[in-house]
Amino acid sequence: MGAPSLPRRHPGEGARPGAVGAFVRRAAERGVASSGHHNRNYVLPVTEDVRHLLGRDTGTSVTVRVRRGDVLPVVIRTWQDESAILDAIKGILPHVPQCLAKGDGYTIHSYVEGVPLSSVCENGKPVDALLVKALAGLLGQMAQVRREALPPLPAAWPRNDKDSQGFLQTLAHLADRQIRRANWPGFGGLFAALGIPEDALTRFAERVPAMARRPYSLLHADLHRDNLIMSYGGDPPLICVDFELATYGDPLHDLATHLVRMRYPAHQWNEVIDAWADTMRLIRPAAVNGLAKDLRHYIAFERAQSVYPDVMRAADSLHASPDQKSLDEATAEVRRALEAGAAPLGLGNLPDPREIERILFRWRAARNGGLGLSAKSMDWHQDQRVPEHPDFPHSAVRQALSAEGATPASRVFKGTGHLNSVVRVPDVGFPVVVRRKVANVCRRERGFLSEHAVLRAIELAGVGVAAPKLLALGPATRVSSSPSTPTRGRGTVSVPQATRCTACCRTRRTGWWTSSTP
């Protein structure tokens, strides 16, 4: 069988770290900079001291790519080494960048002459028909890359290279593991407050239906306008770059991600699909099997998994600009993401923009040390019908509200009518529940008594009923105690989003108070 092939050695690999390291530092200081989601890119000419190391003449432009350390893990990665992918495809796509050197946190690529398509034709604008055909040609060329030339696939990959259903299920599980779970400690409470269940992607995988069999191929998996370069000479008209997220699987996945991320106007989708199908019929006819029936499943997945990065990026953007304009923009982005992903993720009763704004506000306020907008979170006013509780002063109410936005997902419970967050307050010996009324809820049964009035009456009666103890009530705040013990026992906090709660004691059906037990 012969000895296994050795990995290709790049010209700058193993070279003197001082010269290449100095060149990378010089790029960050003097290079023409551009920034993507995952890398900072700097274009500069090769200098005399590194021309032999990079295998390029002095003065030739190269791209230094420095991995950003401040980015959230919001993408699915099949392989970690982009250079190995570039090596595998250069014979099929000769104009893609070549990796000239790589080191800890950086790579140096050959420079692709041209301008990004996004700078000529922005998102939402129709793409010229000739460029659409060129795009279809690029996707078709990738289908010719042999699996043997690519790096080894992860162990969890489907064994059958035509199992379309298995590939989509694998993608959903990878998204759950690499995106949702990786960010759950920091963002799980936010997802739960927005009504995104912890097992949403797992359930999506379970619902993937049987699909037609299509032969796997290399997929770019991130082909949008920023990753397409229009060459100055027009030959070829388009060159694709940034293969970090490339994978190996059903070619319909590449078409679906391209359709969604290119932001084509709706009327151009059929043109793009037809161009892709015409190309594939010439190169790999079996790739179009079941196209009309199965493409929608991959589009649904793209919109489902996009909910997580879109929500996280919107929330994270408030860290740099905690002002009302940024809050409005983040709210709109989260609403768009939830609407797009609602059907594939099985989300119901989406929060309206006002509720999203409040959720984002509380999440950000709990993390910025009391600066900027978070000052408003302390603006709580007591409802005079409920006097200050001896076991829970007003200062404790404000602390509970401040902590609410940072509640982990395991202590956030969203029922049909209320959002409940279990928090700990310093110097208070019991957990409390911040209880907010969910907006736009149409109750099937009429409530005759206010829940806060019922809880208050039970406590004043002094009977041994295991019911929450009402601790505070306000225009955006209500507090009650745990039913796991009589009213003399531990306390919980309940904060309705509306001016006051209209639910009566049958709220027991939502099971919200069980969350107060640690």
Query: Helical percent range?
Result: 25-40%
Low-confidence stretches: 1-7, 370-375, 481-518
Task: State the separation between the terminal residues, measured CA to CA.
Answer: 61 Å
List SSEs in N-to-C order. HEEHEHEEEHHHHEEEEHHHHHHEEEHEEE
Give the number of helices. 14
Range of strand content: 5-15%
Number of strands: 16
The global form is: elongated
Helical/strand content category: alpha+beta
Strand order of the largest sheet: 1-2-3-5-4
Biggest beta sheet summary: 5 strands, antiparallel
Radius of gyration: 28 Å
Mean pLDDT: 84
What features would you describe in this structure?
With 518 residues, the protein is α+β, with helices and mostly antiparallel strands. The protein is 38% helix and 13% strand. It has 14 helices and 16 strands. The strands form 5 sheets. A 5-stranded antiparallel sheet has the order 1-2-3-5-4, sandwiched between helices. Residues 1-7, 370-375 and 481-518 have low confidence and may be disordered.
Brief summary:
This protein has helices spanning 17-30, 51-54, 82-89, 117-120, 129-142, 164-193, 200-207, 251-261, 269-283, 291-320, 324-345, 353-365, 394-404, 451-461, and strands at 32-35, 39-45, 61-67, 99-103, 106-110, 115-116, 217-219, 228-230, 238-240, 247-249, 412-414, 418-423, 432-437, 473-474, 477-481, 491-493. The chain is an alpha+beta fold and 518 residues long. It has a five-stranded antiparallel beta sheet, with helices on both faces.
